[in-house]
């Protein structure tokens, strides 16, 4: 039986396969269909919708979470607004209606208290009369032992103490005249109250506020005080119109005021401080409204100093400072000077003082904006595991492979899956934004919906792409779920948070200032980072998708065959990029500490000669000397009660070209610190050094070009080879082309790093000795004129050490070298001169022979006998010299020091040969003083126990 099927005209596979069978066979060929891209997409999309229907509970929880969060923010906002109350907005009062019952709510400055007034809109601020700060009656100045000129203290009992203004001046007559013009005895005019108040001096003992939108003196139920020389006006009321056109009735009372002359500004200052309420509590409180020092005032010069009390405050130290009433005191002095020049009728009217206009404000803590970036990240974070678990689930149970075997192509799978999640998440984001707007969250209402849509669209695309990418690293749902925390940490959430933060800041500012939030025009603001966020999200989206396509082809999975990681080479060319990271060392200069006085050491003639040579070279430079250290000091400041630490004290040294100077000393003696100052790692506390005639304090950059350094610790890049190190440093020394290659090859050969391609291995594979040899080669490449080597042979085997010594000996022919070492053999083999450091000071300097002769002068006799013969050996040696000193004794082996001046070698040999006839001398020896003996002796003399 033959089955008839409808074949796609483009598909000829079925026909070809049928022809391969014999004609006699009866073959039943099933219906073969070519599925188009549209068909695959429709099938996959429908499958996904069905899958979502089966997960309606999970989807409902996802939608409910952001809705619940929005409702929670609204509830928090209502509670906070209720707790804030009316103190953080412009004040309002219900004013009774005229001629009819009830009241009408009025808001504004005149209906506000001190805390509310700063939130009011003030288009035309009220002008308030300038008022002088006056002491309260109980604090006004009265007579005491220090001020007999003041009125009697009994006035405080009656509450009628007058105010006193202090004044002084170099010309008492002129100062008296100026003081007489400070106050005005004019009358107030109710028809023009503000101008009439400008012609007199008014004051108040009310504490000032921190704003002039309201003047506390006119708000509080206390009378305004009129300061006059003679009070003949009784208390009265005056109506003062405010900015709203409403008159404020205010009571005025006169306060007698006198001016008191003191002999000097110091006397005024003492009087003011003595009476200050926070001064000496044993003194009586005497306060003054103002004090003047007219100084050198004359007919052609106005010279005045004004004292005023700026401490009036009823707030804590954490509150903003109050205003200080100084305008009236300045006007009083200026007006007095004008009257002095032009007569008593002259005036400089100070009509009023007032604040600048300001818009209305209200303190509204918008929690949807303040907390939005934190809460909304939780909402958006739910999208990532949805993508990840869905893709991993299909991979774990081989559903993806099953779909492929049934004709679903990779392009169709990724495209439809992508569009499916995109539509799903955009619906999710739309519901989130719309519901947040519906419940009144300003985070959504104040910002432009277009920008919010673009941001949400890019974020959703980026998170889908990242989910696709990360699905390649998981093979089952449990692994993906367990690694979700780590995966969430990898998500580039910073860009997302920055975008949310920008929205929150603009919406919060919009609520506070009653303006619009973020719009498209704001993207050009210099402080707006949303434009950068949009670019970053787009780039991450693109990169994640590109990586997803690559990993989908090459990542190992439990089903399917992955491609070779370099499969793309057939389409693209590979370009090799090389680079290196720069290395830098920073040194931190110490603060200057005054060094001790420099004196030539009388007990160290060689050190004194070196200092004297340096002093001569300082005045008469000589090109022969490449290194001149001039009184270098390095002092570390005192810490934790310890005295300052002198690392280097008055170090002077001159090193000629072709000379190698060795620096010996125990650990911590100052050798490395001295070198570090010369090479620019440390700044000298005092003194300086000249390298090739250049000062290390001002010309270090030029010195680097002629200097080579082998530091105490190898400073190498582990990923670079010895050859690459030398190429780098050779280029820094201006070597190029064949010259550079030749210099590198010679350097590698000289330190035995050339053979067996050792120079082409990365330095991290080197032994300590190989790294040390490379450091020496680096210090010598490029023919530097000055070389510093800090313990160059540390860690080398004997053969490498002797080879390195040969390299250093050959290289010192045309350069100056300073070398530190703990090896006396190395010092004698390499150094033309040797200096011994102890406690930061140079104790001696000279060639090894000179030092042995100076600090030696002794033979060392060693004799080994049985222990019971030690006493006879001591007596035997004492016969050679009475100044013999035993320096060692252990198990019958004794060591003695014999002065050369008292003992001859022949006598020692003769005495020991004779003693062999009666003593059992097992071994003996006579040696001259070594450099090591000198080192130990000098170190001990300097107060240091040397370790050898």
From TrEMBL:
Describe the location of the ABC transporter domain by residue ranges: 627-864
Q: Pfam families given for it?
A: ABC2_membrane_3, ABC_tran, ABCA12_C
The record, for PROSITE patterns, names: ABC_TRANSPORTER_1 (PS00211), ABC_TRANSPORTER_2 (PS50893)
One GO CC annotation, please? Answer: membrane
Q: Give the encoding gene's name.
A: LOC112281288
Name the record gives this protein: ABC transporter domain-containing protein
Q: Member of which family? A: Belongs to the ABC transporter superfamily. ABCA family. CPR flippase (TC 3.A.1.211) subfamily.
Mention one GO biological process in which this protein takes part, according to its record: lipid transport
From the record, give the transmembrane residue ranges. Answer: 63-84, 374-393, 413-441, 453-475, 533-551
Output the superkingdom of the source species: Eukaryota
Keyword presence, Nucleotide-binding: yes
Q: Do the record's keywords include Transmembrane? A: yes
Task: Write out the annotated subcellular location.
Answer: Membrane
Q: Which SUPFAM superfamilies match?
A: P-loop containing nucleoside triphosphate hydrolases
């Amino acid at each position: 039986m033959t089955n008839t099927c409808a074949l796609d005209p483009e598909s000829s596979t079925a026909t070809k396969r049928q022809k391969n069978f014999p004609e006699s066979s009866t073959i039943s060929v099933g219906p073969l269909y070519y599925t188009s891209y549209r068909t695959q997409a429709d099938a996959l999309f429908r499958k996904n919708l069905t899958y979502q229907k089966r997960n309606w509970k999970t989807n409902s929880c996802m939608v409910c979470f952001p809705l619940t969060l929005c409702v929670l923010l609204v509830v928090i906002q209502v509670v906070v607004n209720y707790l804030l109350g009316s103190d953080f907005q412009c004040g309002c009062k219900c004013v009774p209606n005229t001629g009819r019952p009830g009241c009408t709510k009025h808001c504004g400055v005149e209906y506000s208290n001190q805390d509310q007034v700063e939130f009011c809109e003030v288009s035309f601020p009220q002008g308030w009369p300038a008022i002088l700060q006056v002491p309260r009656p109980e604090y006004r100045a009265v007579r005491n032992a220090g001020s007999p000129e003041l009125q009697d203290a009994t006035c405080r009992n009656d509450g009628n103490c007058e105010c006193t203004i202090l004044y002084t001046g170099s010309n008492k007559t002129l100062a008296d005249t100026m003081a007489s013009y400070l106050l005005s005895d004019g009358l107030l005019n109710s028809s023009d109250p503000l101008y009439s108040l400008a012609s007199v001096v008014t004051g108040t003992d009310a504490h000032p506020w921190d704003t002039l939108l309201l003047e506390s003196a006119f708000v509080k139920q206390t009378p305004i005080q009129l300061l006059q020389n003679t009070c003949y006006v009784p208390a009265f009321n005056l109506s003062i119109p405010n900015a709203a056109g409403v008159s404020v009735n205010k009571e005025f009372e006169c306060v007698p005021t006198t001016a008191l002359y003191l002999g000097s500004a110091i006397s005024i200052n003492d009087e003011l401080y003595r009476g200050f309420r926070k001064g000496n509590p044993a003194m009586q409180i005497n306060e003054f409204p103002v004090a003047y020092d007219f100084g050198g005032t004359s007919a052609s010069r106005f010279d005045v100093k004004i004292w005023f009390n700026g401490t009036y405050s009823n707030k804590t130290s954490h509150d903003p400072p109050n205003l200080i009433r100084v305008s009236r005191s300045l006007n009083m002095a200026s007006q007095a000077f004008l009257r002095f020049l032009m007569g008593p009728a002259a005036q400089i009217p100070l009509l009023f003082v007032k604040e600048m206009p300001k818009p209305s404000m209200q303190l509204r803590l918008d929690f949807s904006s303040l907390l939005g970036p934190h809460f909304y990240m939780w909402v958006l974070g739910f999208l990532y595991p949805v993508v990840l678990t869905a893709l991993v689930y299909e991979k774990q149970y081989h559903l993806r492979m099953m779909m492929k075997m049934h004709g679903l192509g990779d392009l169709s799978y990724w495209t439809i899956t992508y569009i499916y999640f995109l539509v799903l998440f955009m619906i999710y984001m739309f519901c989130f934004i719309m519901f947040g707007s519906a419940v009144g969250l300003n985070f959504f209402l104040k910002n432009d919906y277009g920008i919010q849509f673009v941001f949400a669209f890019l974020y959703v695309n980026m998170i889908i792409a990242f989910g696709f990418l990360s699905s390649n690293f998981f093979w089952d749902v449990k692994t993906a779920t367990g690694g979700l925390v780590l995966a969430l940490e990898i998500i580039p959430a910073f860009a997302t948070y920055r975008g949310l933060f920008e929205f929150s800041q603009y919406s919060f500012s919009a609520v506070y200032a009653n303006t619009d939030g973020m719009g498209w025009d704001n993207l050009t603001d210099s402080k707006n980072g949303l434009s950068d966020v949009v670019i970053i999200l787009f780039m991450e989206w693109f990169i994640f998708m590109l990586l997803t396509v690559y990993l989908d082809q090459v990542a190992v999975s439990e089903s399917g065959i992955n491609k070779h990681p370099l499969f793309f080479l057939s389409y693209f060319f590979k370009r090799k990029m090389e680079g290196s990271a720069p290395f830098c060392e920073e040194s931190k200069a110490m603060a200057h500490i005054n060094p001790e006085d420099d004196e030539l050491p009388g007990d160290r003639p060689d050190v004194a000669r070196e200092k004297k040579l340096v002093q001569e070279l300082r005045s008469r430079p000589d090109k022969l000397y490449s290194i001149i250290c001039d009184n270098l000091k390095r002092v570390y400041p005192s810490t934790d009660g310890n005295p300052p630490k002198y690392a280097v004290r008055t170090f002077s040294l001159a090193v000629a070209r072709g000379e190698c100077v060795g620096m010996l000393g125990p650990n911590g003696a100052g050798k490395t610190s001295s070198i570090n100052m010369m090479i620019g790692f440390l700044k000298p506390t005092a003194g300086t050094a000249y390298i090739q005639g250049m000062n290390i304090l001002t010309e270090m950059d030029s010195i680097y070009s002629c200097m080579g350094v082998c530091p105490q610790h190898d400073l190498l890049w582990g990923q670079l080879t010895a050859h690459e190190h030398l190429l780098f440093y050779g280029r820094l020394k201006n070597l190029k082309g064949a010259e550079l290659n030749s210099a590198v090859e010679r350097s590698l050969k000289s330190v035995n790093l050339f053979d067996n391609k050792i120079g082409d291995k990365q330095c991290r594979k080197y032994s300590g000795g190989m790294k040390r040899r490379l450091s020496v080669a680096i210090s010598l490449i490029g023919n530097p004129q000055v070389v510093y080597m800090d313990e160059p042979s540390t860690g080398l085997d004997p053969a490498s050490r002797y080879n390195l010594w040969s390299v250093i000996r050959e290289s010192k022919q045309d350069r100056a070298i300073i070398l530190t070492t703990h090896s006396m053999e190395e010092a004698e083999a390499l150094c033309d001169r040797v200096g011994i450091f102890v406690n930061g000071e140079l104790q001696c300097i000279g060639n090894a022979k000179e030092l042995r002769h100076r600090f030696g002068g002794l033979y060392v006799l060693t004799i080994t006998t049985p222990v019971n013969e030690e006493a006879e050996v001591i007596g035997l040696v004492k016969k050679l010299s009475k100044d013999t000193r035993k320096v060692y004794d252990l198990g019958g082996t004794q060591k003695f020091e014999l002065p050369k001046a008292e003992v001859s070698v022949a006598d020692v040999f003769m005495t020991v040969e004779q003693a062999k006839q009666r003593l059992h001398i097992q071994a003996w020896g006579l040696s001259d003083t070594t450099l090591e003996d000198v080192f130990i002796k000098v170190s001990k003399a300097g107060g240091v126990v040397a370790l050898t």
